[in-house]
């Protein structure tokens, strides 16, 4: 590696066989690997017999370390940036270091590979020509419902990450905001031993998750179809408008006005903005 470079390296989201030969070579040849979790990344490197030193780089120290790491790059060293799993910077730390390196004129080069976002889209069977990645929804119920109300009228396919602790609540809130019948696909533990990919309506997925404790374990990617020019779209727009009006008006008044504005049924809107 004659030119000092910050390599942004994608690592497996589950199956270790997905670490590409090029990624292995880069991880061997750089001067250090900047890792979100050095213990987890250390296990990955050990599996492939890679002894490159590891540096902890996570959301709590990235701002402070970026300048020091850029100085190493300017001095001629090459570094690799990895996350716990998948492609760095996609709902993971790293953008501050990448931004600082680019601002300093350092070469930043991607080593592409696994991504839970792309993996889920590839098997969902939902429109993927245009999509919006929303990452993790807010943990607080009121903030989550407010965000979903803003997204209810989105025509693009939506992709969310979710944890086992909130998958039940998030699916319930999605049903309330988007309607029970919205088509969706839920990918769980993708590329891992207990991988499952469930499809159906949001209500179907919620029922299956509630009925099977195993479907509430692991890491999730939820792909939700956008709205079309039909009753589903009208209802979604009604819920979006209702959520805005409900910030200033009583629920019944907000529902009545939202129904008049959008043509959505008032009964379907009333109570849609209820809090925790």
What is the topological layout?
Blueprint: E1 5-9, H1 21-29, E2 32-35, H2 38-47, E3 54-56, H3 62-74, E4 79-82, H4 95-103, E5 107-111, H5 116-124, E6 131-136, H6 141-151, E7 157-163, H7 167-178, E8 183-188, E9 196-201, H8 202-211, E10 219-224, H9 231-245, H10 251-262, H11 266-269
Parallel strand pairs: 1-4, 1-5, 2-3, 2-4, 6-7
Antiparallel strand pairs: 7-10, 8-9, 8-10
Termini gap: 54 Å
Are there runs of 5+ residues with pLDDT below 50, and where?
Answer: none
Mean pLDDT: 92
Largest sheet: 5 strands, parallel
Q: Percent of residues in beta strands?
A: 15-25%
The shape is elongated
Kindly provide the radius of gyration, computed on alpha-carbon positions and rounded to a whole number of angstroms: 22 Å
> In sequence order, what are the helices and strands, one letter per element?
EHEHEHEHEHEHEHEEHEHHH
Record the strand order, biggest sheet: 3-2-4-1-5
- Which percent range fits the helix content? 40-55%
**Total of DSSP H or I helical runs spanning 4+ residues:** 11
Number of strands: 10
Q: Class by helix and strand content?
A: alpha/beta
